[in-house]
Amino acid sequence: MDTLHTKLQLLEENLKKSGSVMIAFSGGVDSAFLMVAAHRVLGEAAIAVTARSCAFPKRELEEARELAKTEGIRHLEFEFPAFRVEGFAENPPDRCYYCKTAILKQIKKIAGEEGIAHVMEGSNVDDDKDYRPGARAIREQGILSPLKEAGLTKAEIRELSREWGLPTWNKQSAACLASRFAYGESITEEKLSMVEQAEDFLRDQGFGQLRVRVHGSLARIELSDADFAEAAKRKMRDRVSEVLQGLGFSYVTLDLKGYRMGSMNETLKRE
Predict the structure, then answer these.
(1) Can you give 41-56 as a three-state secondary structure string?
(2) Phi and psi of 127, rounded to 5°?
(3) Distance between CA atoms of 165 and 180, rounded to whole angstroms?
(4) Would the CA dihedral through 230, 171, 97, 266 be positive or negative?
(5) What is residue 129's predicted lDDT score, i.e. its pLDDT?
(6) What's the pTM value of the predicted model, to 2 decimals?
(7) CA 24, CA 238: separation in Å to the nearest integer?
(8) CATH class entry, domain 3-170
(9) Spans in the chain with pLDDT lower than 70
(10) What are the pLDDT digits (tens) for 172-222?
């Protein structure tokens, strides 16, 4: 057996030992794979749960619902009032810790009500390479990270997802909309909506991996290298500027470094 499938076997063994699990499910590559893996091993003893909030893109929510339905997995949802979390609107560097803590506490409560033994989430070993304050919340709340425990990387999860025919195998990485704001910049529902609409528009133009980062009234667009040529065309530049300024941004820029994970953390590393 090759290394990849040895890791998969370890994951499945750990899931089987768990008895019953609730998967914190965002609809992304990792949590989708974990949800399906748990359901394959545990059947109805594996349940998915998703937190709905103004910081969770509607497109992602619909895709999460569709995947759970297609796979025949019980999928629960609850409304999460992000702006009631202390520090969320103020957006400090550890904002994710407080938000993640509140979400995981609610998921644990739901798991208890459902008689579920363990709560799991989809972190992989690559997640340790970036600044992720939410990881502390995962540890403190006693949430299990079986993909990481099995030693699976993002690329390996994509490969296994492809083997299983999951539509998420080549899905672009997503993240909470609050991660688009420079630390210290206040977050409002209006600003979150601006970012969501801007990113939806860009995806509808055919752009793949992307982020619209917010610095005051300036929108900094990050695109993959493959999309730079299209974005640089005058007609496209004019159209993107028109639409994003119509949403409320004063200035629209294209980041020459392109898309990269956690670019808002770059300023933290220089401090």
Answers:
(1) HHHHHEEEEEEECCCC
(2) -65, -20
(3) 31
(4) negative
(5) 80
(6) 0.93
(7) 40
(8) alpha beta
(9) 267-271
(10) 988 899 999 999 999 999 999 999 999 999 999 999 999 999 999 999 999
